[in-house]
């Protein structure tokens, strides 16, 4: 980050400023073993089912598809 701030690249300067603002979160994301990947997968699957069901039936059927689909 220090090397980037020494260069004449204003776009990267704003990127480094954002990294420094969120440095604790960046360090945690790169070092901790936790991941939100499984949650993102469920959200993606739910959105896909919702798109497939658009205009077809009532929310009860969508709920059944979400709960019964593996």
Automatic annotation (TrEMBL):
Lineage per the UniProt record? Bacteria, Bacillati, Actinomycetota, Actinomycetes, Streptosporangiales
What protein am I looking at? Transposase IS204/IS1001/IS1096/IS1165 DDE domain-containing protein
Question: What InterPro entries does the database record attribute to this sequence?
Answer: Transpos_ISL3, Transposase_DDE
Q: Locate the Transposase IS204/IS1001/IS1096/IS1165 DDE domain: which residues?
A: 8-66
């Amino acid at each position: 980050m220090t090397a980037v701030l020494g260069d004449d690249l204003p776009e990267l300067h704003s990127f480094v400023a954002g990294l420094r603002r969120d440095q604790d979160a960046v360090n945690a994301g790169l070092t901790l073993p936790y991941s939100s990947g499984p949650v993102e997968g469920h959200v993606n699957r739910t959105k896909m089912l919702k798109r497939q069901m658009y205009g077809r039936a009532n929310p009860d059927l969508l709920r059944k598809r979400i709960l019964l689909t593996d």
